[in-house]
Fold these 3 entries.
Entry 1:
Amino acid sequence: MLITMLLLSGCWNYREIDKLAIVSGLAIDKNAQGDQFLLTAEIIDLKETMTQSKIASRKIEAKGESIFDAMRNMIKISAKKLYWSHAKAIVVSKDVATQDIVSIVDWISRDHEARITLNLFVSKEQTASELLFQQSVTTDIRSFEMEDMLMGNRSLSKAPNVKVYEFMNDLSEEGISGILPALGITMNMDEKTAELSGTAVFKKEKFIGFLDEEDSKFLLFVKDKIKGGVYTIKVEEESPNEIITLEIFKNKTKITPVYNNDILSIMISTTTEVAIEEQNTTNNYIDEEGRKKLISIAEKTLEQDVENTIKKVQQDFGSDIFGFGRIVKAEMPSLWKTMDKKWDTIFKDLEVHVNSEIKIKNSSLTSAPLKVGD
Amino acid sequence: MTPARNYTLSTSLQKNVEIIKEIFLNDDTLIHRPFENQRNPDLKCCIFYIDGMIDANIINKNIIVPITRNPVLKAEGNIINYLQYQIITSNEIQKTNDTNQLVTAIISGDTVLFVEGFPEALIINTKGWKTRSITEPVSERVLRGSREGFTESIIMNLSMIRRKIQTPDLKFEFLVLGNQTQTKACICYIDGIVNKKILTELYQRLENFNLDGALGINYIQECIKDHPLSPFKTTGNTERPDIVAAKLLEGRIALILDGTPVAMTVPYLFLEYFQSNEDYYLNFYFASIGRLLRILGFIITTSVPAIYLALVTFHQELIPTPLILSISAARQDVPFPSILELIILLTTFEILREAGTRIPTYIGQALSIVGALVLGQAAVQARFVSAPIVIVVALTGITGLMVPSLSGVAILSRASLLLLSALLGLYGYTFGVTAWLIHLFRIHSFGVPFTLDLTSFHLQDLKDTAIRAPWWYMKYRPKQITFNRRRIKSD
């Protein structure tokens, strides 16, 4: 009886690998009237030429009234059913991000094949699909390259590395709005290619605007998501055009809400470990005295930059992407109860003080500046 | 042959001769040699022996010459006693009137001497057939260690063991197995270390052994197993005296059978499959690595086809993306579904391996493996099968050769896990593994749990499992095999 039970279940859910069309990435647009979705999927196309196999990608387009509808409509063109488990990147256009980001995120979390660890991007260009059609630089498959860009961003810190589950958490929590990395097109050696640059800022579930790269870096400082990167400071009082480049190794940010005399303010303190990576002068910033000077200048500059970014976000966007509301809710819940309805307005005028501490770990391999002889 | 018990000896030499000839009717190898004393021809005797089983020199020099040439022998008095104690020069003489005993003696290569006027006969030891010389066993080779292997003569085998353990506590007890073959067997153990319960259990089971013949150890093994239907063997085989000696020192019991160089050791645990005597002759680091490799090899050979199939056909999301692209590329335009490819290639590999063992040269094995890989390559080129499958099958096959005593178990478990994962994916594989584990943990070897020491929490018990601790650290013998646990004398 056991054997008949086993045999009767047959090969339920048995799928041969070569009958699947493996999707690596997706671009979601809306058509001009705004009522139909235009999906472009990038599918891995495997051609085998005797013993060598060349991996290339093909694009398939489809239209539909909802996202899932459009996806199934793709079967009209591709013979095989699409397989989403290895999809790595989804790019949405600005219109879709403004109106329908919730349905996209809902589909990703609900579908049993799509993973919630995939990366969501917002396109800076007119449409999202043109990003999939760009020439790629390192791999043949655009979507994998987009994911690789985000992984490499650890050392660059010019865009946030936000996965769908993080975005979902931010969407559903009170006191914080989500952000997504943004992709644009640039020229690379006379060829257009996609580039990771900046952040897309959301307010609740609507996309409202972009932050450029430098601001994205300071945004990441506030969110305590810096894992590497470069910080250039200008030492202008002494000598103009003097630029020291610091490589950031570690950063820890602590945000504390302070409630004094009925006024809420936020204290941000950052501790950063850096190394002196490059300097374009021969002034010595490595010995005791020069280091102290360098540190004080760097700290001041960083504080200034972070405060500027926060102010810009407060004024231009009015959306609490830093998570101050969430912190107030966590640390002062009774206060939050009185404020949460008006948080938008409170956020706009919130006072923020930044206190930075920079430690210079080492100066890489050389411990003295280059000497220029006669 | 009519049962010898129906006959009784008489005092007439002629009558006795007729009796023996009737018992051995139609057996032309029985030789009857009558002779008399030179000086006193009234002293008539005759001997019976089986040609080919005896050493003719002993008969000539020690029996015929002393009796025929002796000048003072007379046919009076208790001649037979006189012959037994003072004339015949042999290291073993017995006097008997039991025809059963006489017949057994003749068959086993002794000479039987009848004297005129006495209803008794003398059994004289004259065994001398040709045996194989001591060589290294083909299947159990070592790099560093003795190169002796058992031969087919039981006395020689026992002497090899005796030389390794020279204590009077080493006991050998003879018994006879097999109704027609009457094969001599010997049970060896070291008194004081052995667990007497297992010994009595072994005797009891051997008493119930009722087959016609015991031509090889496996005849006995299958009849005395605790779980006759289990594919795992619960008694061990070996051809080397040093392995038998080591096992005796641990408190196990060995059974040596005449006519086969394979000895059986009881009880046998799952761990012993993976132990090789080489482990104890080499540095313990290398030995531990070797043993871990063997265990890993066994796991690989049973699981890899099943896991590959389950992942590629049911759970593609568990495969890393670059790998799934390669596999998918390799599988384009291949006609058969994955499960069929795996079954075909695994069967082909087994066929080639089996054919390779029948080629009567040493390169047979290597030839068959190379042949399998070349066949696989050609099949890939012709687009019959996909390249990843060939890799999986080659890996499976080669790791299957690492523990040859487990090859039967490996084939069975590989096939069952493969079938289950073809039907139910990783669920099926997990069910299969659980079922095998339940079986493995359930069986006993003569009352000792088969997986003793695998799950023990005591450090001392784990010292000889997946790793081998250095000798100065292994102070205790395995717990349930013996009660006398201290291996090293404490001061």
Entry 2:
Amino acid sequence: MLRKALAVVLSGALISTGCASAARGAMQSPAVVDPAMMAEYVQRIPAGSRVRVERTNGESMRGTLMKATPQAITVQRNTRIPEPPLEIPLGSVARVTLDSAGGGASTAKAIGIGVASGVGTFFVILAILAAAWDD
Amino acid sequence: MLTLLAQAPVQPAPVTRGDAHFVLGWQNLHKEQPQDNYNDWINSIFYGGAGTGWYWNDHLKTQVDFGAGTRGEQYRFRQLLVNGTWTYESSRLKVRQDSVAVSQQYQFFRNEWFHPHVGAGMDLARETLTEQYQPVTVYDSTGRNTRIITPGHTEGPNHRFIARPFGEVGFKAYMTRQAFFTADTRLMVRHCIDEVLMRAGFGFDF
């Protein structure tokens, strides 16, 4: 009986707080952005700034802002091998934010590579020890 | 038809055409004991290998690996009943594998500094087996002495080829635009998990 009551209470809590809501996607649909306001905003961002661009189709990318016009922005993605800049129509842009984590991203990359190298080295040492161990 | 072909979207060339790598690793072989008394795994095997891969697009890669392990040993033990008296037979199994593996991998992300991947393929190994048997003795209670009923002997080296499917997970972590550190774990399957191979090394894109 106590278990049933507890289950009902927990289920109610999940539903009322939206934790188990199936309509989450619908609730998070992007709001319509005023194109004029967006155009004015992006043209004030200095060229060469590292930006994060979120698009209306849900995709997002990090890159360097090269050019901004009332119709589109031109961004070069942060990739390992440099790629040609992309021209993105402002109509498909949901949000542009300055990517202040630029230094942080390279730090995260360095940490990631360090961790990966460490794990790999650990396994190699483990392998050598295991191979040297004569059972 | 030609018009349709001309209008078809052109698949961009992959960022990376191919890669090559050199790895060291830890090989673990499953060798079932004749009786269920001891550990069925041989863990003390050092592995070295090299391989190359070809990218069909930014996510699909076919890879060929060549590798070999050092000799692993397993102590084996069997209890025997000889004329109503219990005795035992022990042996030492020595195993070594040279292998070639072909796999198809799916690489996550595109043109990033870190790429995890999953893959599956087929491993063809040439296994060399040698088993050294200790003499089997039995105590004769009437004569109060121990006598050898089977002298010590060696079987092998015997060679055999085994083909096993495998699955793998791993990653490439780039240090420069073309040089990377790589690591993966492969599980070879026969009746159950037959081999666990953990590898790490360095490579470069071309």
Entry 3:
Amino acid sequence: MLTIEEFGRRLRTGATTSSEATEACLSRIDALDARLNAFILVMRDEARRAAQAADEELAAGRDRGPLHGVPISIKDLFDVAGTPTTAASRVREGHIAAADAPAIAHLRQAGAVLVGKTNLHEFAFGTTNEDSAFGPARNPHDDTRSPGGSSGGSAASVAAGMALATLGTDTGGSIRIPASACGIVGLKPTYGEVPLDGVVPLARSLDHAGPLALTVTDAWLVYHALVGRPASRAPAPLPVAGLRFGLLRDYFCDVLDDEVRMQFDAALGRLRAAGARVEEAAIPHAALIAAVYLVVSFGDAGAYHAPMLDRVPERYTTPVRLRAEAARYVLAEDYVRGLAARDALCREVDAALVGCDALVLPTLPISAPRIGASTVQIAGVDQPVRQLMLKLTQLFNLTGHPAISLPCGATAAGLPCGLQIVGTRMQTETLVRVALAVEGALAG
Amino acid sequence: MTVDAWLEAAIKDAEARGLPDLKPLLEALARAMRALRAADFDRPC
């Protein structure tokens, strides 16, 4: 699979062109998307025109930087001028975006070629991508399984070589969960770093936008373009020897699939062998995370969906309609309690990071679940899929800390596992330097 | 409003609106509300 870094090297030595890379992605879409259902809209003509323009610009001596001519897919929550922003919902039938969302404008300014808009869980209100007006997206590693969600089509598009990177959103884990399930990298920056104007919200106080890509370096390059400060290259990795990790074990590692636990422990072993220090850290009120997340996310989502639920309730998929309807019942006093609890959790994550370079934990307690499964067995006990998939990621939406998921081995059946690293707020670059070090140590 | 009173009223309202399938979601929300109301974030665990 071609990384952005490698594509850039080949582009600038004349070994390839943006048009060639874009045609390769479009060919992969033609060959695979009937099975994977990753795309809601393929922008063939526009992509070809943009690729040709990128090649002409480069030939004329104008180089826009690392994303110049790079084929990228976009989660269909972002406004792309002249195309519908469906949010994978019939509720938005007839919508056409008048202008690019600022994040999209930043990608275009950096030279990216948009190949299409990707499938997602309807309104990003779910973790499996099963409830979509366009049918479920499927996991390239096993098409009977979910690619994760809500940015499931996005992750599938990169894992299957249909784009070199993709733009997703993350409200409870929707970048990191599908990155883990599909075996790629997903970066949720610090809250507020990537502009969310022109993006259909799920819960505004929890929504983040960020990249999914094949490598940490690629994710960094896309992230920098998204924030409007294109970087010419990724920062140097921090030396692994001497890195200090806080291991979140209590609550977070209580319920893990055996194979996920094995891969996670093996990754920690490699980090220790490379000279990193891994010591246990704790979030004292971890047992309340799911309750706080449910009340705050429902409060936010209920406010956004109320007018549409009154007007066109029949256009929602049934599970998402029920979730959005339930969200409308949150009492103001409990929402305010949720906000206070969220502040406390934020302080607890800050405290856990004192003396550490980053926190470390698995991204998902399980590998990609089968499409349609509402429960999965762990140690002989049925566990609800939705709650499990959110369990290890949602805290960092509540607190806004930057977090990244990297591939970390696979199960015997070949299903990817993910390692999550969490950094200090407003220090996404430091987190990426740690992640580069971890990626190197796990590959070595 | 107590959580029990809220839950009873919410389920009744959902049923009146033709949405009886909301009951398990409302019960989950009630569990979250009870947990939050019982929590003391100023007290160390």
